[in-house]
Amino acid sequence: MNRYCIFFLLILLSATSLKAQLPPVFSAERSAQSRSEETVRRFLPPVRIVWQTDHAAGQIKNMAALLKKGTGQADLTGKDLCILSSKGKGKPGILLDFGKELHGALQLITDQSKGGKPIRVRLRFGESVSEAMSDVTDTAKNATNDHAMRDLVISIPWLGKTEIGNTGFRFVRIDLVDENAELKLKEVNAILIFRDIPYLGSFKCSDTLLNKIWMTGAYTVHLNMQDYLWDGIKRDRLAWVGDMHPETSTIAAVFGYNNVVPKTMDFARDITPLPSYMNGMASYSMWWVLIQRDWYMHNGNLAYLKQQKSYLQQLLKHYMKKIDGDNSEVLNDGVRFLDWPSSENIPAIHAGLQSMLVMTLSTGAELLDILEDPVTAKQCREAVARLRKNVPNANNSKQAAAMLSLSGLMPAKKADELISQNGVHDYSTFFGYYMLQAKAKAGNYQGGMDDIRNYWGPMLALGATTFWEDFNVDWLPNSSRIDELVPEGKKDIHGDYGAYCYKGFRHSLAHGWASGPTPWLTEHVLGVSVIAPGCQVIRVRPNLGDLTFAEGTFPTPYGIVKIKHVKLKSGKVETTVKAPPGVKVLR
Predict the structure, then answer these.
(1) Are 294 and 248 contacting, i.e. CB atoms less than 8 angstroms apart?
(2) Is the distance from CB of 178 to CB of 86 less than 8 angstroms?
(3) CB 470 within 8 Å of CB 504
(4) Over 247-272, what HEC string results?
(5) Three-state DSSP string of 490-517
(6) Hey, is 475 helix, strand or coil?
(7) Cα separation, 235 vs 508, whole angstroms
(8) Where do the domains of the chain lie, and which CATH numbers do they carry?
(9) Are the CB atoms for 527 and 551 separated by under 8 Å?
(10) Quick one: average pLDDT of 261-283?
(11) What is the largest CA-CA distance in the chain?
(12) Which intervals hold domain Alpha-L-rhamnosidase C-terminal (predicted)?
């Protein structure tokens, strides 16, 4: 045997021996217990320095170094560093802007420090400038560390790489904590954690504001597509099933199939034994049924739908028991909730729940037909017929009117008249989607586009890059932008407003339930409706209103459908559709 063969044999034996000595965490049993996530990480430097302490001269040097793309590695060159020093008067601080709302953490890469001792810094993450400048002790503006730490003190090492935080943010403030300290920063990077997936759906029209709104809704939901589908990336990092319905509608229009939807739906089912309601809310298990129907229509996965059969049957049977002798819903065994702005209008909640029960049992009957359970499907339809004999009053609630319309309990035109009163006052980011859907049902597509411009548009005008948990146009007068220090005499749109569980800085500025305009514009302006399961048949009927053109793409299990509408001088709309094999297009 020559020396080369002996050399490679020794390498092989060494590798085999090393494998045998691997720690227990790498064993087959331990590997089976491990969990992976479906997200990736990207590192982004800040795009601007918003603020520095007043006494920064001589205490903060070379801040511009932090705006450069780095290597992610500490080194010994000692070159091009940002230095913060508290050896003079006061303790220096800087506020960084990463340009856009992100989900993730912060990475600090440091150079050498005196004596090699760790340096203590205070970090404050913020979805707005004012939040990043706030204190958690500020009870007046409700700054919190709820759900995710956004205000903390941490020690960072010399010549090291430290990663801190897991939250939603755009801005980060860094302050030295101790006197007579010096921090040498080589890099500060935001760590963007997200699903690396393509935007298969698209929308473009002659109104650039609507284009921006469509994309902002898509991006808001994308950030919330973490290991599970959340409602908010800073607060409400939970699987709220009702809140998911606008999100799953957006996902279908933008990303097509994504595992985060069935994974989160199954999670909600598995932690909610019947007769309990998902998230404790009587309406949220109803939203689960409605999402199942919509998801099946878009993706056509019958095998997945069959996995829901037993739970679906028992859930629908439970709902059928919640109708009294007056044909009224009596969903008193769970929290009675539509959305926060309607939560004090008790008659409106009843009208909304009555409507939702009609929609749920009607949808349940459709699904049970597919799942070959005609007996329970018939029972569902009989229950719906009973419910339709009792039509509650909307009590001037736009939320209730929307649901009454969509369930067929109120004429669409009548509901639209109520929803249209006083413009977009009394809109909400969650149920605004269903108000828009009710307008479309009434044929008021122009009114829907105007409401999108007038309600979601102002958030963008205030510097938003994602849509908020709630928004009220009454907040607009004399309010400042979220990407600037609040000028003297101005109102802080983030810290001074909000209600219920989202007062002040606890208010989430990246909430997936606010994405309704994205699927609405795809469905009603681009004009795409799914007619047969799995998008085997779609209908394309545009409603351009005051637009001169609209074009875009729509994802299906068979590939991308390309659509373009152009309004001619005659007023007629010329439509071009290119669909992949397997997709039949109706006009």
Answers:
(1) yes
(2) yes
(3) no
(4) HHHHHHHHCCCCCHHHHHHHHHHHCC
(5) CECCCCCCCCCCCCHHHCCCCEHHHCCH
(6) helix
(7) 6
(8) 3-33 (no CATH), 40-194 (2.60.120.260), 220-465 (1.50.10.10), 539-586 (no CATH)
(9) no
(10) 98
(11) 95
(12) 527-584
pTM above 0.70, yes or no: yes
- Cα 35 from Cα 263, distance rounded (Å): 14
User: Percent of the chain having pLDDT more than 90?
Assistant: 90
Question: Strand, coil or helix: what is 438?
Answer: helix
* Dist CA 39 CA 279 (whole Å): 25
Quote the Cα angle for 358-362-366, to 5°.
Answer: 165
| Interatomic CA distance for residues 203 and 519, integer angstroms | 10
Q: Which two tokens stand for residue 385?
A: 């017929």
Q: At what angle do helices 412-420 and 398-406 cross, to 10 degrees?
A: 160
Region for 288 from its dihedrals, namely left if φ exceeds 0, alpha if ψ lies in -120 to 50, beta otherwise: alpha
- Say which residues have a Cβ less than 8 Å from residue 539's Cβ, sequence separation at least 6: 527, 528, 529, 531, 585, 586, 587
Residues with Cβ within 8 Å of residue 434, at least 6 apart in sequence: 399, 402, 403, 406, 516
Which structure tokens are listed for 269?
């089912």
Give the pLDDT band of residue 26 (cuts 50, 70, 90): low
**Mean pLDDT score of the chain:** 94
Q: Which two tokens stand for residue 544?
A: 């351009």
User: Tokens representing 153?
Assistant: 């003190």
Helix boundaries (H) for 195-283: 208-224, 241-254, 260-270
Residue 344 in tokens: 């004090």
Instruction: Give the C-alpha separation, 228 to 211, whole Å.
Output: 27
Band the pLDDT of 29: cuts 50, 70, 90.
confident
Residue 581: asked if its preceding bond is cis (omega within 30°), the reply is no
Residue with tokens 């819903």: 329
Contact present, 194 and 101 (Cβ < 8 Å): no
C-alpha dihedral (246, 249, 254, 260), degrees to nearest 10: 90
Compute the distance between CA of residue 514 and CA of residue 231 in angstroms, rounded to an integer. 9
Pairing of strands 537-540, 584-586: parallel
pLDDT in tens, 393-426: 999 999 999 999 999 999 999 999 999 999 999 9
**CA-based end-to-end distance of the chain:** 77
Q: Which tens digit of pLDDT belongs to each residue from 90-120?
A: 899 999 999 999 999 999 999 998 788 899 9
Q: d(Cα 459, Cα 454) in Å, to the nearest integer? A: 9
CB distance 445 to 524 below 8 Å: yes
pLDDT at 33 over 90: no
**Complete DSSP assignment for 304-354:** HHHHTHHHHHHHHHHHHTSB-TTS-B---SSB--S-GGGTT-HHHHHHHHH
| φ/ψ of residue 59, rounded to 5 | -105, -20
What are the backbone dihedrals phi and psi of residue 122, each rounded to the nearest 5 degrees, phi first? -105, 130
Instruction: Give the pLDDT mean for 253-267.
Output: 98
